[in-house]
Structures are given as structure tokens and as C-alpha cells.
Design brief:
Shape: globular
Strand order of the largest sheet: 1-2-3-4-6-5
Distance between the termini: 120 Å
Number of domains: 1
Number of helices: 6
Number of strands: 6
């Protein structure tokens, strides 16, 4: 079995890629002559059995997060929606799924049959992959990421930038509309009386 790129759990510097475990140590085989550029390329580099498993995991993620963006990050399939959503990768003795620490904690009981760490799950090749559970974890991560992004979209406008309410003149905008300054008209009658006195 081939594996392109390092296990994210073994290379991701702490804090640089949110949700990817940094302490797991895999044993990937890196014998492929060409590094993949897309997820399709990545999946194509494995045996038929592993390709089927990776393909089903990918389909499961896409059904649970249809708006997610697919990219390769750290050389492995990565899905993003409002930030990193989940990662997955194939290795010599397991397929890794990385749903961030919160994805592990919220499904810890259901993940009991599998080897887990802070942010990773290992599915061994001799056991069925729980695609339904993966889908539920992905949906949870979608809600979590969107909830985090919502306050940013609704951030209130600073008071000094907020438009004023409609003024009495019916205008809106920055600063209330002011009526034009009144001008005093000269009193021609007073001027004529002064002229008569001078005469």
C-alpha cells in the first residue's frame, strides 16, 4: 500500500493546522514517484481495496458537507467549510480520519471500538469502516464551523460609522440634515430714515 505525503498527525506543527493531531506516529510508505496534486490523484495511487474505501469516505463527507471545498493539505485529502472541516488519509496499516478534537469528544462512545487520539481515528484494514458514523461526525463539524463563523458575519458596526436615523427633513446618512441658515434681510426702511436725518 502506498501513501502520499506524511501523516498529518506526525508533521503538523502544533497550532498550525487546527484539528490535526500532532502526536500520532504512523508508518506511511512514500514510494510514489509523483506527488498527487488533487484528491483524485491521491486516491489513484492505492490498491483497488483502499481506493474503494477512500472513495466511499470521500462520498460520505461530500454528502454530509456538500458545500465543502476539497483540497490537499499536508499531502492528504482535506475538506474545508468555514475553516478546516476534516481530513483523511491511507497508511500501511490503517486509514486515518481527522475530525478535530471536538469531533472525537462528541462521539467518543461510538468510537470506542477504534484506536483514537486527540484528533484522529484509525480504521484498521480488517474491519468495516463506519461510514454512517463518519457522516454524523462531519455533519457535527459543519454545524460547529458555521456556528463559529456566524458571529463574524453579524459583527455590529461601530457607532461612529452607523448611519443616523431619518432626520426631520427626510434625509438619511452620516449626520442629520440641517436646515439652511437663515439670512437677515436689510431693513431698507431704517436705512432711509438715517439718510433723511443726515440731510
Amino acid at each position: 500500500m502506498q501513501s502520499f505525503g506524511p501523516d498529518p498527525a506526525s508533521v503538523a506543527p502544533s497550532g498550525s493546522e487546527p484539528g490535526v493531531a500532532t502526536h500520532e506516529r504512523g508508518d506511511p510508505m512514500r514510494s510514489a514517484p509523483i506527488r498527487p496534486r488533487t484528491i483524485d490523484d491521491y486516491i489513484a495511487g492505492f490498491s483497488d481495496e483502499v481506493r474503494v474505501r477512500l472513495g466511499k469516505i470521500r462520498q460520505t463527507i461530500r454528502r454530509a458537507a456538500p458545500d465543502a471545498q476539497e483540497v490537499l493539505s499536508y499531502g492528504i485529502p482535506t475538506f474545508r467549510l468555514g475553516g478546516n472541516l476534516v481530513h483523511c488519509a491511507a497508511f500501511k496499516n490503517h486509514i486515518g480520519f481527522y475530525p478535530t478534537p471536538s469531533g472525537i469528544e462528541n462521539f467518543r462512545n461510538e468510537l470506542a471500538p477504534y484506536a483514537i487520539s486527540k484528533g484522529s481515528i484509525r480504521f484498521p484494514p480488517d474491519q468495516p469502516i463506519p461510514y454512517g458514523l463518519i457522516g454524523r461526525i462531519v455533519k457535527f463539524r459543519v454545524k460547529e464551523n458555521l456556528a463559529k463563523a456566524e458571529p463574524k458575519r453579524k459583527k455590529p458596526m461601530p457607532a461612529e460609522c452607523a448611519p443616523d436615523q431619518a432626520s426631520a427633513g427626510g434625509h438619511t446618512g452620516f449626520g442629520a440634515a440641517r436646515p439652511p441658515a437663515s439670512r437677515k434681510r436689510p431693513d431698507h426702511g431704517a436705512r432711509s430714515s438715517v439718510s433723511q436725518k443726515r440731510r
